[in-house]
Amino acid sequence: MKELVLLKCGELTLKGLNRGAFEDALMKNARRRLKDVGKFKFYKAQSTIYAEPLEDCDLDEAVARLSKVFGFSALSRAAVAVKDFDAIKELSAEYLKDSLSLAKTFKVAAKRSDKTFTPASPEICAELGHFLLQKFPHLAVDVHSPEVTVIVEIRDYAAYIHREQTPGAGGLPVGMSGSAALLLSGGIDSPVAGYMMAKRGLSLIAVHFASPPYTSERAELKVKALCEKMSPYCGRIKLFTVQFSEIQQRIKELCPEDYFTIIMRRYMMEIASKIAAENHCGALVTGESVAQVASQTLMALACTDAAASLPVLRPVIGMDKEEIITIARKIDTFDTSILPYDDCCMVFTPRRPKTKPRLHEVIKAESALSHDDLIHHAIHGAVSVVIG
Ligand code: ATP
Ligand code: MG
After folding, report:
1. How far apart are CA 126 and CA 118, in angstroms?
2. Which numbered atom of ligand 1 lies nearest the CA of 345?
3. What is the best residue among 182, 188, 189, 325 to mutate for testing ligand 1's pocket, by most ligand atoms within 8 Å of CB?
4. β-pairing, 48-53 with 3-9?
5. Degrees (nearest 5) of the Cα angle 228, 232, 234?
6. Residue 192 CA to ligand 2 centre (angstroms)
């Protein structure tokens, strides 16, 4: 029995030229995610993308991976039948025998996009329903809330038999909206922020600030592990690790203590902006949420924004922690995020961080630093690795 995966494209309000680009980007992303599952042929017809295995492979794994590819609204694993109604009936009974044996109720739904095929949809439903009732006499038809829906699609190339569609990841194909640099800490929020922006079609690079010897190598491995967890959704991520201890030490030595965090965050923004621009990114992404900590008050955010030379996207800005955690669990980053390794933000925490910093005061407070040298060193010392 031949099987394949039928993928429905999302956001179909996209029209004309856009739609072709959308589908091409989707096929490219989907093909890449299945690369080590097996050989697949991808093609599109009638606003559906087909992923057809060309060799024996784990189709459950393929479906699991495809359900994380942004841009698909729904998917179904289906059996391929020749366009002959008797063959379709036999194959439906055979293909869905496990579900139909266990269920008490079912119905048939037919979609006939090849209008040359006979019978028409209402007759397909009636006759196939009758056929299946004979094969599985314990079943009853329930058109309103059946346990199993047998779906038959008569399309150009063949007929396809499957159960209910499963939801896709939604959103837009990664890469279609450009690229952004995610400031990735080891915390809960930033991986979620990256996931949310990738869902809007952004491909990501990640910038992580590490402070060895104050932060451990395990903290850096944790950030790599987070990228690995994100990549089934976000695709390939180039992770830059910036050595941040020199900057933190200088701030500690030369700036007023209550400005430490805000100055540190401005340096993060500036360095990330430069790495982003070198890597053709049009924005920064952070996991900041209003009032979560002292550095995330409106006045603090205004001061950090002023140090960024690209727009700063903050998709979790209005979410509370529980909402963010729900997504972190869904994308499986939560357990990694809560591993207890120090982040550079915890290295020197001021006793009374300024919650209402004013930009001109911050600029004055940071004026003792040899700004250009610090930025230059940090960027030249950054190392990168590609994950996913
Ligand atoms: P948490 O779940 O602990 O809040 P967080 O990642 O949100 O984790 P915050 O201290 O709230 O950490 O920092 C706000 C944002 O600043 C982060 O979401 C992240 O985008 C960025 N950030 C913080 N620390 C780092 C770091 N070490 N490297 C890169 N980005 C960082
Ligand atoms: Mg946070």
Report:
1. 13
2. 24
3. 189
4. antiparallel
5. 90
6. 10
Taking phi first (over 0 means left), then psi (-120 to 50 degrees means alpha), and beta for anything else, what does residue 215 get?
beta
DSSP 325-385: HHHHHHTT-HHHHTS-PPPGGGTS--SS--SS--HHHHHHHTTTS-HHHHHHHHHHH-EEE
The pLDDT of residue 12: 56
Q: What CATH class does 3-167 carry? A: alpha beta
- Say how far apart CA 263 and CA 269 lie, in whole Å: 10
CB of 288 closer than 6 angstroms to any ligand 1 atom? yes
The best mutation among 182, 183, 185, 348 to test binding of ligand 1, ranked by most ligand atoms within 8 Å of the C-beta, falls on 185
173 Cα to the center of ligand 2, angstroms:
27
Type of residue at 235:
G
> For residue 40, how far is its CA from the centre of ligand 1 (angstroms)?
39
Which ligand neighbours the alpha carbon of 343 most closely? 1
Was domain 178-387 assigned CATH 3.40.50.1220?
no
| Distance separating alpha carbons of residues 247 and 111, to the nearest angstrom | 63
From the CA of 187, which ligand is nearest? Answer: 1
Instruction: Name the average pLDDT for the chain.
Output: 93
Which residues line ion ligand 2, judged by CB < 5 Å? 189
Work out which ligand 1 atom sits closest to the CA atom of 287: 18
Q: Which residues of 189-228 are buried (b: 16+ CB within 10 A; e: fewer)?
A: bbbbbbbbbbbbbbbbbbbbbbbeebbeeebbebbbbbbe
Give the number of residues written for the chain. 388
* CA atoms lying within 13 Å on the CB side of residue 76: 16
Atom of ligand 1 nearest to the CA of 321: 2
Q: If you search the block for the tokens 């096929």, which residue do you land on?
A: 27
pLDDT of 221 > 80? The answer is yes
Ligand 1 and 223: CB distance under 6 A:
no
> Which whole number is the average pLDDT over 47-64?
95
Whether the per-residue pLDDT at 348 is higher than 90: the answer is no
3-state secondary structure of 256: coil
Domain ranges of the chain: 3-167, 178-387
**Segment 242-272, tens digit of pLDDT:** 999 999 999 999 999 999 999 999 999 999 9
Quote the CA–CA distance of 66 and 236 in Å, as a whole number: 15
